[in-house]
Amino acid sequence: MNFIKENIRGNTTKGFILVEIMLVFSLIGILVSMEIIVVSKYMRVHRQEIERSRESFYVNEALMLIEYHVNSAEYVEVEENKIKLKRFNESGYDYIRKDRQSDIIISYGSEYYSTTNNILKKTKDFKVEKAGGVIYISIEMDKGRIYRRCLGLERLKVRATS
């Protein structure tokens, strides 16, 4: 019996054996890989949300700029997805339209004049309709999201003369 006790006591070692260390490292590896997967999914969703938010901001800014130009014009016509704006100083017309590069632009003086300003880039579709005193604007972006806005037209019938 003493022989068995001595053999048992003699075989005990202090410290860790190789199997235990490998088991700990494999568990740590599994936990770290799960964290990496979760973080990468979160980063992808975060990037998509930033793109969506940025696109929404730019489209809303473009719609506000279009509304400003419509409200500051003397007369507004809508024809073939273009907005024709007559200036108050009677020096001509400005046009808000989509160009060949799929950008929404404002063209000063003539419909296809070289002096233009970009309002919004990378659009897929730009539709404008007029019904009564309201202009309906629909902008579809490259990613497929559609933004809509309606603008009310208020015009004075008679200008005040002094």
Outline of the structure:
It is built from 2 helices and 8 strands.
Write the layout of secondary structure elements.
Blueprint: H1 2-11, H2 18-71, E1 75-79, E2 82-86, E3 93-98, E4 104-109, E5 116-120, E6 123-131, E7 134-141, E8 146-152
Antiparallel strand pairs: 1-2, 2-3, 3-4, 4-5, 6-7, 7-8
Task: Please describe what this structure looks like.
The chain is built from two helices and eight strands. With 162 residues, it is of the alpha+beta class. Strand 2 (82-86) and strand 3 (93-98) form a beta hairpin.
| Rounded radius of gyration (Å) | 34 Å
Task: Give start-end ranges of low-pLDDT stretches.
Answer: 156-162
Major sheet: size, sense and barrel closure? Answer: 5 strands, antiparallel
Tell me the number of helical segments per DSSP (H or I, 4 or more residues long): 2
* Strand-pairing-aware structural class: alpha+beta
SSE string: HHEEEEEEEE
SS strand fraction: 25-35%
- The geometry reads as rod-shaped
Transmembrane segments: 15-38
Organism: Clostridium tanneri
Keywords: Membrane, Transmembrane, Transmembrane helix
Protein name: Type II secretion system protein
Structural descriptors:
162 residues; disordered C terminus
